[in-house]
Amino acid sequence: MAKRGELTALLRYRRAQVDPVDAGLPRRGGRGRRAAGLSQAQVAQLLFRTERWYGQFERGGIDAPPPQLLEDVARVLRMNEQERASLYLYALGQEPPDRSAGGPQDDPAHDTPAGLSWAGLLDDVSPHPVAVTDVAWTVVAHNRGFAAFHRALVGERAGEGTPDGFNLLHWQLLCEEARERQLLGWEAEWARSAAARLRYSLARHPNNRRLRRIEREVLADPRAEAVYRECAHTFEPERHSHPIRLDGWGSGRLAILSMRPYSVSRTWLNIMVLEPEPEPAQPGVAGA
């Protein structure tokens, strides 16, 4: 069954981002204003479907839409790979075919993340902080750089534990220290993409208890709940960075580059790239 609320929110969000003129259609008009994005009727026209049919699809009322139709929708609404994957998850409850391989992705049940040894490997991967997380974004392995990064995150609470078990989504959405001091511009810069990642992860792993617990905490927190309900589909481009300030590290912009190791799709490899804030220019001596 389609996840109707999530599907509707995703499709409405994407419609609003596409300029009808860029799609070869007249811009929508109205009394004294211009409506943003494509209308349902315009999307239906581009899909060669009736407006009634598309309206029903957008409400999640079409059971088991064919994959080719979803590909057409993703193309018309100019979805990136994350949005395309969410479209399949919300409409069909499964991952999309892998475009690069030309076939469906492997069944996650066949993954063997426990069989891959990370000991000593991550320090060779990158001088930047690196953490391996499970599907719920909980750290299961890390390098020395991430251990130092984690100490800067928890500050005086550093004695509370090692980075193993630290959850990146919980930190970004619910940690008060992060929201007030560390993650600058929290709501606009950090929370929206973290909320989108939580919804996507839940759609892919609906029975994961850690993800469900984080969602319950988010819904019980007024600040996080407002962002989660309103901004669930703000997917960020590759290497998008956000402003951050950490004790001992200073201020700058942090990009978290997340990727799946080959054949181990139930883990994520996360590389933290911190670009320090430029030092203020020092007054120089003329002619020096």
Which geometry do the CA atoms define? elongated
Structural domain count: 2
Strand order of the largest sheet: 2-1-5-4-3
At the third CATH level, what is the topology name of the largest domain? Answer: Beta-Lactamase
Helix content: 40-55%
| Largest sheet report | 5 strands, antiparallel
**Mean pLDDT reading:** 80
Number of strands: 5
CATH architecture of the largest domain: 2-Layer Sandwich
- Rg from Cα: 22 Å
Structural class: alpha+beta
Provide the succession of SSEs.
Answer: HHHHHHEEHHHHHHEEE
CATH class term of the largest domain: Alpha Beta
Number of helices: 12
Distance between the termini: 71 Å
Question: How much strand?
Answer: 5-15%
Structure description:
The chain has 288 residues and is α+β, with helices and mostly antiparallel strands. The protein folds into two domains: 4-92, 434 Repressor (Amino-terminal Domain); 110-276, 2-Layer Sandwich (Beta-Lactamase). The chain is built from twelve helices and five strands. The chain has a five-stranded antiparallel sheet. Helix 1 packs antiparallel against helix 5 (81-92) and helix 4 (67-76) packs across helix 5 (81-92). It is elongated and about 60 Å long. Residues 95-116 are annotated as: Disordered. Pfam families: HTH_31 (PF13560), MLTR_LBD (PF17765). This is MmyB-like transcription regulator ligand binding domain-containing protein.
